[in-house]
Amino acid sequence: MTDSSDRRQGIQSVGIGLRVLDVLASLDGAAALGVIAQASDLSASQAHRYLVSLIAAGMARQDSITGRYELGAGALRLGLAALGRMDSFREAAVALTDYVRETGRTIQMAALGPDGPIVVRWIMGTPPISTSLTVGARLPLLSSATGHVFLAFRPPSHTVEMVTRETTPQFQSIDVEGMRQRVRKLGYSAVQGDLIPGLRATAVPIFDLQGEVVFSATVLATDVFKSEHDEAARLRLIEVCDQITAQTGGVRPTV
């Protein structure tokens, strides 16, 4: 066998080994050899050889009682290192800036602060939208599309004090749990003039690896510029936010 043939064989082996590792990562917990082999498109004997090598490298491990395989400590270290090098805010800002260039819509990014959602970035579209909200402004939880997203996709313990603070006589009739479940089912929240008259807002979550919303992206529009393209802009924003979630190692929670 020539040197070039050796290199091709070696590269192919690495590729197959990474495929087996990716299967281990995608499965819901430890799995039997046959399941891994089938998902990797390998025979059982081939899959076993690669698993032995992955175990030797610390990338996989085998349960001594059940014989099932799962990710090892080495794979965990790699995953954590990759996450540690990933700036989710930067990734989100870049992708959402591209969205604004593509659609002309205005985007507001927010994160959850100790007293409620905080505007962390404005990306102005065309025509520009002028509001009293600026970077650093705090948004209400119960009467903004952005707040609804954090209410729905963060544990209740993270928002209970905010809900209590905002449950004034004006909002006592709000079905908070119903709102939470509705937004979780839809996957986004849309309001029309609830916070600022004449301003329409649709907020979409961006998730972390625990399935909790880390940022929200809210597309804004005014009644003056009502458009039949609103639905397309919303669907495209959901697609972009899901891509950001995937690129930064996040997971959309199951409803």
Any guess at the CATH architecture of the largest domain?
A: 2-Layer Sandwich
Counting DSSP H or I runs of 4 or more residues, the number of helices is 9
What number of structural domains do the residues give? 2
CATH superfamily of the largest domain: GAF domain
**Beta-strand residue fraction:** 15-25%
Give the beta-strand count: 7
CATH topology of the largest domain: Beta-Lactamase
Protein structure class: alpha+beta
Shape annotation: elongated
The N- to C-terminal Cα distance equals 54 Å
Largest sheet: 5 strands, antiparallel
CATH class call of the largest domain: Alpha Beta
Topology order in helix (H) and strand (E) letters: HHHEEHHEEHHHEEEH
Largest sheet: spatial strand order: 4-3-7-6-5
Q: If you compute it from the alpha carbons, what radius of gyration comes out, rounded to the nearest whole angstrom?
A: 23 Å
Proportion of residues in helical segments: 40-55%
On the 0 to 100 scale, the average pLDDT is 85
| Uncertain runs | none
Describe this protein with a few key phrases.
single chain; 255 residues; alpha+beta; Beta-Lactamase; five-stranded antiparallel sheet; two-stranded antiparallel sheet; 9 helices; 48% helix; DNA-binding; IclR family transcriptional regulator
Description of the structure:
Residues 74-250 form the IclR-ED domain. This protein has two domains: 3-82, Winged helix-like DNA-binding domain superfamily/Winged helix DNA-binding domain (Arc Repressor Mutant, subunit A); 88-247, 2-Layer Sandwich (Beta-Lactamase). Helix content is 48%, strand content 18%. The protein has nine helices and seven strands; from the N terminus they run αααββααββαααβββα. Strand 5 (189-192) and strand 6 (199-207) form a beta hairpin.
